[in-house]
Here is the input.
Amino acid sequence: MYKYLIVLLLTISLAGASTGQDINFSQFYEMPLLRNPALAGLYKGDVRITGAVRSQWGSVSGVPFQTQALGTEFKFALSTYSNDYLAVGLQLTNDMAGDSKLGRTQLLPSITFHKSLDEDTDSYLSLGFIGGAVQQRFDPTKLKFDDQFVNGSYSSTNPTRQSFSNTNVTYWDASVGMLYSTEVGGNVKFYLGASYFHLTKPRVAFSPDNDVRLNAKMMLNGGISAPLSDYDRLILYVDAFKQGGNQQAQGGFMVKHDLVQSDDDETMSISGGGLMRWNDAIIPLVKLDIYKLGIGLSYDVNISKLKAASESRGGYEVTMSYRSFLNIRNSSMDMMRCPVNF
Here is the structure.
């Protein structure tokens, strides 16, 4: 009975974290496939590779919640006679938390179609799909049980009567998204989108006796980029989502200053700004773009009810991205129209 209670609590813990906000990064705009699969391909170039590393709550639990992600996107024109594009991608994520090493790994391929709506402007309607395998697990050898305490002293070498028939589970997940993107006056670019995650509400319980499912998540996305001067742009991002009985909003701004301007891959810029997750954290950030490489750094300042225990310390996050044009026949470099990019 005791082991079933532990398995149930672990399952609820993982499902509960997912219900709140799934895997979420402070620099959420760097991981478009986790926001909306229709956002794949909204960048300048043919290929983009983005990695992110996040560590948080180490000041509270002593064992930080760690998350890593790697996303790839490849965009190509469907025809020289139209401005339509197809983007294919792959999203890999891994997270781990707590003494039990409760974790989850996702491998999610994606495909996105960008339909041109206007021959004279970069106006597109985009439809995206992402889906694949998810594996979650925990390590029971990292848990402490009552019968391992002898005379009030614990030792991991003390035998325990507790055993677990299943410490990992694999399930399939799928999500869809839609996006409208355009430009106004040739200088102001924006997009609005909606996405629906966990279409099938997959079963995530470790024990077959428990029917614990991952709630569907509905999300709205927005972004706008407007010039402040010949060398500066204001960029705004916002997301709002609801999953089960929980809801959250996050957004913020960056001011981007061009150090070197170019029509190809040889641009350099520096950006700074701030983001906010409502009732959770304030997030200062900085980003440096050096030609094809981008590096971002942010830190969560906790403003939730945990700020007393955490002393307002949330966690750091580092992102790195690479994007470039390719020497291929259907490269987006040779096209007059292209989905908006920030």
